[in-house]
Amino acid sequence: MNAVIDLADRAATALRRCGAEPHGDDAPLVVTSPIDGSVIARVHTCSPGEVDAALTAAARAFDRWREIPAPVRGRVVRRLGELLTQHKADLAELVTLEAGKIPSEAAGEVQEMIDVCEFAVGLSRQLYGRTMPSERPGHRLMETWHPLGVVGVISAFNFPVAVWSWNTAIALVCGDPVVWKPSELTPLTALACDALVRRAAADEGAPDGLHHLVLGDHSVGEALVDDPRVALLSATGSTRMGRFVGPRVAARFGRSLLELGGNNGAIVTPSADLDLAVRAVVFAAAGTAGQRCTTLRRLIVHRSIADELVDRIAVAYSRLRVGNPFDEGVLVGPLISERSYESMCAALDRARADGGRIVTGGERVDVAGAGVYVSPALVRMPAQTEVVREETFAPILYVLGYDDFDEAVSVHNGVPQGLSSSIFTRDQQEAELFLARSDCGIANVNIGTSGAEIGGAFGGEKNTGGGRESGSDSWKSYMRRATNTVNFSAELPLAQGVEFG
Ligand code: NAD
Hints:
Elements: H1 2-17, E1 29-32, E2 39-43, H2 48-65, H3 70-86, H4 88-99, H5 103-123, E3 131-132, E4 139-147, E5 150-154, H6 162-174, E6 178-181, H7 187-203, E7 211-213, H8 218-226, E8 230-236, H9 239-251, E9 255-259, E10 264-268, H10 274-286, E11 296-302, H11 303-319, H12 338-353, E12 357-360, E13 377-380, E14 396-402, H13 405-413, E15 417-418, E16 420-424, H14 428-437, E17 442-445, E18 457-458, E19 461-462, E20 469-470, E21 479-487
Parallel strand pairs: 5-6, 5-8, 6-7, 8-9, 10-11, 10-16, 11-14, 13-14, 16-17
Antiparallel strand pairs: 1-2, 3-4, 4-21, 12-13, 15-19, 18-20
Helix pairs in contact: 1-4, 1-7, 3-5, 3-6, 3-7, 4-5, 4-7, 5-6, 10-11
This protein binds nicotinamide-adenine-dinucleotide.
């Protein structure tokens, strides 16, 4: 009982410190913590009318925000970065309470928000267009970038704040207001972020209505999908969700940016530094209890070293402490729900039926209170069967053997998803070949599949949806490109030498 009061109190305190309030006891959406399954708050959900009002206000804000110079828009994001820094501990606390991440990973997620704000502030002075030589004398040919419109953001439970910030920090400097539909499992972190971004906007004298939070289930998300006022819909979640969202947005000629499921693989070659590989593999496969889109799910190991590597990973797994993420020394927190555990068990049953052998893990771990805790599973598979080709959002690492490098790459690419990938090798030729042949949006050498930095473009190919967010030139998705030709001569030459009259 104490724990129950404690978690709810902790959530309310962190929320208030960020300038938000938990909603009353009559609010319909019940927020539970995966740590012990207890109710930590209740929040209101948006009616269709409220979603419509948010979109109307955001569209109105766009008219004013687009006129403000990008470096001035950047000041709101700089202020947001300052507020996120001040409230880093509060936000991390909420991430642990709602998503179950261990405090270090939760703080890392908030740091990612701060980092992307810094990046976006710099970007606000670098929204560069190109100039090209015109084929006509006395003409200038160039590209200019313009604000796009309202950006809708749909986010998943497992990165409840970072993904929002990747979109929002960039969208704001690009001149776009944001309407955010967070996961129904993590509305408190969203309330806190919404309060902070509104404060940043007010502190910098930005127009009203730049940011709106619309809480609710998939039906609220669907309202964003179908509304033509949403110029870009950035949707992060399962491939199942993306299959719905992508075609629906395309049908109204809207833009979508899809960040969907991954089924990430790593190849370990005979020349690999196994000490380094073991450490990287354990973090990538068992960290966040296997609930990252970039979690390592398939390990493709040269048969000459497979037994040794599997033994060493099994030893490392046996030392991982599974439990309440707030407890000292815990590295693996809870699964988000009982349903996640059921899908993990179902996948392990199918793997066994396919001839797989569970080396370790996959068992329920009893942790005081309640919550769904499980030991990360390590499974040797005779082949990449159907279950291995699917994303099970839980800590299962399938190990597959290979004899020949080309075979390893072909197994690696032989899944429908294409998010993150890595190779462990000290052979430069293998490393380079892998970087060229991996069909994923992210390909790494001698680091794991998870834990990307914000400076690069983040996203994946195939069933992962093809979107790119965060660093590099991802900002281009949030702007409209115009090609401009300026004639500063007194003649009117036509392109391609066409004569007309
Ligand atoms: P989910 O698909 O169940 O939900 C994600 C979000 O989509 C939620 O806000 C949900 O309400 C909304 N949604 C669901 N159906 C919708 C619909 N028909 N229309 C509009 N909105 C809808 O995913 P989840 O369980 O919250 O998250 C886990 C999944 O997300 C995994 O597959 C993981 O790989 C993926 N993910 C991908 C990335 C990435 O960047 N590629 C990042 C994080 C998570």
